Amino acid sequence: MVDNINKQLVLEEVFKGYAKFGNSKSDGTTITLTNIDKWLKEAGIIDGKKVSTTDTAIIFQRFKSKTINFKQFMTFIDSLCKECTSKNHEEVISQLSSSGIPGTSNATKADTSNIVSRLTDVSKYTGSHKERFDKQGKGKGKSGREDASANTGYVQGYKHKDTYNKQKK
Prior knowledge:
By secondary structure, the chain is mainly alpha-helical. Helices cover 46% and strands 4% of the residues. The chain has helices at 2-20, 33-43, 53-61, 70-83, 89-98, 114-119, 142-145, 164-168, and strands spanning 30-32, 67-69. A two-stranded antiparallel ribbon has the order 1-2.
């Protein structure tokens, strides 16, 4: 009995997570078919053979709404178990509970291999790229990317700069 209550609470938390996933305005009380399909795929219930997104769409359409609440979701799962899967209700609930809350926690992580560290070590940069970073490896921003001109009226290699007025006297 206590175990069923714990599973129910875990399932409700995961439901809220999937209801909010991808929708910043959602409060987690209702879920869309898209998010249900994502959840069922993550849990391994939608396999494309025995259970497909077409099956879930047919069942979801019976609610005549774009979103359903948790109580309706449990009815949805009951219908899915009866019509499409060979699994019983408890197996599906267990799979859904164990799938966890969605997010980017297992997203692609930054590569920290030796090759990448050598390529990103700015102390080894040469040529014009060397000018883009200071000694600590921080980027200089726009000043490191562009050659700033003095706008004095003289060309770069002119040796007698500021001598015109001195010659006239």
